[in-house]
């Protein structure tokens, strides 16, 4: 069973989906431009961020698999395949998408649709999986291409196709007919927008999420069943705000949350175990106050005993300095080079701007993947967005610190991390 995260107005809840095979076909032609091509990739990543863990084994009958085809002129198609054994986690998929480079050639959309079906879907689809294709293009295709291939995906009625057209030209009837042909003349499957930036708007991703998984909302008091973690290797570094704004009671709740996380996740068997989790904790205050409360460790006793000894700084907040300190001091990662480095920030974002840019750059160089827990209504959204590297779906929110150990919030966060 797969899960799509969403935030309801009243509660934390989930959508449930069966086995999904999703293929994105994205325009990499010269007219798109490098900036817009990057927005296309961000759209793919942000959409898949809404999903739970990807299928660990591409041959599994359950879970979600994702493929991507980027296309330009004839013969330049590049793909992340649905059955690629290297794509066994969300982080592996993100890395593969980010490595895609803009081709900057012509536009052979019909041939790209044929390529997507013949190479990603026809022979590698799973019998019980729902197959969805999302096509993005900014304009008419090269007249040398075969326009009869526009409906190539429609020859398989079990494949659901959505076409996203970007730019003013799709206001023209002729060009809109191209999109309708791609989407097999299905109502509600043609989506148009003026700018590529609209691709990454939360409202639009909500709409695509509904296309991929038209599940129903849960009731406020529903606590969903929890999918087991795939036990991928992850080094989780918590950065805990020790400023006076936190308060002693909230500080205690944050420590309790970290310990509950350590008890809930499967920890590594040793420092060189290539699977499972290790934890580290850095508490920070002023620009000169950073404490590694415990370095990266797989030992639950060390984590628990260290947390019991952590004292609240009750200081100011200099997050940038803390990130730099964490990158340089949390412990040896050489034995687990394949592990994702996950930074978890427990902060309201109200902090000194000193060294913040440098801190974020340091995290990027370390290939850190950020997640932010921002609780309460008094937050600095600009700082939160900066630390989250612009990925708003990686910011977890709640009314207060009491939410940290509520089952709905806690289990949702567990699925995100693992």
TrEMBL record:
Output the InterPro entries linked to this UniProt entry. Collagen-VI/PIF, VWF_A, vWFA_dom_sf
Q: What is this protein called?
A: Collagen type VI alpha 2 chain
Q: Which domain of life is it from?
A: Eukaryota
Q: What does this chain do?
A: Collagen VI acts as a cell-binding protein.
SUPFAM superfamilies attached to this UniProt entry: vWA-like
Record GO terms (molecular function)? extracellular matrix structural constituent conferring tensile strength
Tell me what organism the protein belongs to: Hippocampus comes (Tiger tail seahorse)
Keywords, in A-Z order: Collagen, Signal
| Boundaries of every VWFA domain copy | 21-208, 235-413
Q: In its UniProt record, which GO terms are filed under biological process?
A: axonogenesis; muscle cell development; muscle organ development
SMART domains cross-referenced by the UniProt entry: VWA
| Family the UniProt entry places it in | Belongs to the type VI collagen family.
The record's listing under PROSITE patterns reads:
VWFA (PS50234)
GO cellular component terms listed in the entry, alphabetical order:
collagen trimer
Gene3D superfamilies assigned: von Willebrand factor, type A domain
| CDD domains documented for this protein | vWFA_subfamily_ECM
């Amino acid at each position: 069973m797969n899960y799509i995260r969403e935030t309801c107005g009243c509660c934390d809840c989930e959508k449930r989906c069966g086995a999904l095979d999703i293929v994105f076909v994205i325009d990499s032609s010269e007219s798109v431009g490098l900036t817009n091509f990057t927005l296309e990739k961000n759209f793919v990543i942000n959409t898949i961020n809404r999903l739970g863990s990807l299928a660990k084994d591409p041959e599994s009958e359950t879970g979600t698999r994702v493929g991507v085809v980027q296309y330009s002129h004839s013969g330049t198609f590049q793909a992340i395949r649905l059955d690629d054994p290297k794509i066994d986690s969300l982080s592996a998929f993100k890395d593969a998408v980010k490595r895609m480079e803009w081709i900057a050639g012509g536009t052979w959309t019909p041939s790209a649709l044929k390529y997507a079906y013949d190479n990603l879907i026809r022979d590698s689809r799973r019998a019980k999986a729902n197959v969805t294709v999302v096509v993005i293009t900014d304009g008419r295709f090269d007249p040398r291409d075969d326009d009869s291939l526009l409906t190539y995906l429609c020859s398989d009625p079990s494949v659901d196709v959505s076409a996203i057209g970007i730019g003013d030209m799709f206001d023209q009837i002729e060009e809109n007919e191209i999109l309708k042909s791609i989407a097999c003349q299905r109502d509600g499957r043609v989506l148009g927008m003026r700018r590529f930036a609209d691709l990454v708007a939360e409202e639009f991703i909500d709409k695509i999420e509904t296309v991929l998984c038209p599940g129903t909302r849960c009731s406020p008091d529903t606590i969903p069943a929890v999918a087991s973690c795939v036990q991928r290797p992850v080094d989780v570094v918590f950065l805990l705000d020790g400023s006076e704004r936190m308060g002693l009671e909230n500080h205690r709740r944050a420590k309790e949350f970290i310990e509950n996380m350590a008890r809930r996740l499967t920890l590594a068997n040793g420092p060189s175990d290539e699977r499972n989790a290790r934890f580290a904790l850095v508490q920070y205050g002023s620009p000169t106050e950073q404490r590694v409360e415990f370095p990266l460790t797989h030992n639950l006793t060390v984590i628990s005993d260290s947390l019991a000894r952590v004292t609240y700084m009750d200081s100011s907040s200099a997050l940038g300095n803390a990130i730099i300190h964490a990158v340089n001091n949390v412990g040896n990662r050489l034995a687990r080079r394949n592990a994702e480095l996950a930074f978890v920030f427990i902060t309201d974002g109200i902090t000194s701007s000193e060294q913040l840019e440098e801190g974020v750059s340091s995290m990027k160089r370390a290939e850190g993947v950020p997640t932010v827990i921002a609780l309460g209504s008094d937050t600095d959204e600009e700082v939160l967005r900066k630390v989250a590297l612009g990925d708003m779906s990686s910011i977890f929110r709640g009314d207060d610190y009491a939410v940290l150990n509520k089952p709905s919030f806690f289990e949702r966060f567990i699925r995100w991390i693992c």
